[in-house]
Amino acid sequence: MSRDALLKTYMDMVEDRTEGQSEFHQAVRHVAGDVITIEKAHKEYAAAKVLERLAEPDRVIGFRVVWQDDAGEVQVNRGWRVQYSNAIGPYKGGLRFHPTVSPSVLKFLGFEQVFKNALTGLPLGGGKGGSDFDPRGRSDREIMRFCQAFMRQLAPYIGPDRDVPAGDINVGSREIGWLFGAYKAHALEFTGALTGKGPSFGGSEIRTEATGYGLIYFLEAMLAEHGDDLEGKRIAISGKGNVATHAAEKAVAKGAKVITLSDTSGTLTAEDGLTQDTIDWVRARKAAGEDIAGAPHAEFAESASPWDQEVDIALPCATQNEMDASMARRLVDNGARIVAEGANMPLTSDAQQIIADAGLLHAPGKAANAGGVAVSGLEMSQNSHRRFASRQEVDDALKDIMRHIHAQVAEEGRQGNRVDYGRGANIAAFRKVADAITAMGAI
Ligand code: 2IT
What we know:
By secondary structure, the chain is α/β, with parallel strands linked by helices. The chain is 49% helix and 16% strand. Strand 11 (338-340), helix 12 (349-357) and strand 12 (361-363) form a beta-alpha-beta unit. Helix 8 (207-225) crosses helix 9. It is globular, with a radius of gyration of 21 Å. The relative contact order is 0.13. (2Z)-2-iminopentanedioic acid (2IT) binds next to strand 3 and helix 14.
């Protein structure tokens, strides 16, 4: 059978079983498109039905989260943990609190996490979880009570050798502190069952910065591969959260010009590049739950998109499917040459096709944003050893890991003097996961 016929048969099976889970279908289709012929050509993988098995998470745990708001009213939210695959290590992946969280979104994120974690070279399986809870407009005490109620439901299913959650959108070190407090009260043990903890209770240096810094280290490796560097490059970044602001900070420190940051209210633009004080201001506003209109030394435009600027490099760091076909076309027309994903699956399938057809280099999130989970892996190992690594030690390890991911992906994806990063990442990660699944038999 041809690749297209194989992919159609496979995706028909996936879609029949998971009707309506469009984000999940999108993520699975991209990986399967790159690896299905490899699975079929490799006798052991084909016999073990590796792709068919990977279309189904190990399990999805769903629960009700009941808590009381400041007015004493009972609130009911939905929570889930997708334990996708522990073929190469304990389930590992973030928790997201956002009204768009659904089983489809968490399954796509869990699926991607399996492959991302494999690329880090650390012994980490893949998972993802979260809730449809919206922290916007909630007081600190309400968010704490929500975290405690959420962990009451989740705690029985996690642990340092079983499943180790961390943060994701709207779950930062403050929420991890509340979640960890509730976990510890349940488990009657102090173990590293969560990462992204505060430095005074087992958290790793650099974990907060790691996804954004790692994205820039990966970008530097991409540029070096193609005989170039960051100096003077014009970069558009979307988002205003942890990934976006730390990527911006590191890019500016390396001599690039960061032209934009954004949120759902609009886009901040500085023609000569945002300065560190503007980035700090954005971070403080995000922490206070406020939008980014009115930043110092930058223009704010309500309906503008970061992809309307003339830039060399685009770093989408907001959320899934944030860039659609028309935005991708504008980005290409504005002269961008590189897209590296800080967010998970930020391009729609149509946007991805446009970027590919225009010949841009495009690094997928599972490679480019793996720095966060990589430092989570380092935090787990520090906790197991009961020690703390220095900031320098962790930053050096993060740089090494991002260079190593780039080298693996480039090797699998090299086509002449260019690299197909999407294909390279999917193939390198798939081989590792498939080898482990195959070695463990039909279980
Ligand atoms: O998308 C991601 O890789 C994360 N949210 C980080 C997960 C982790 O376990 O550190």
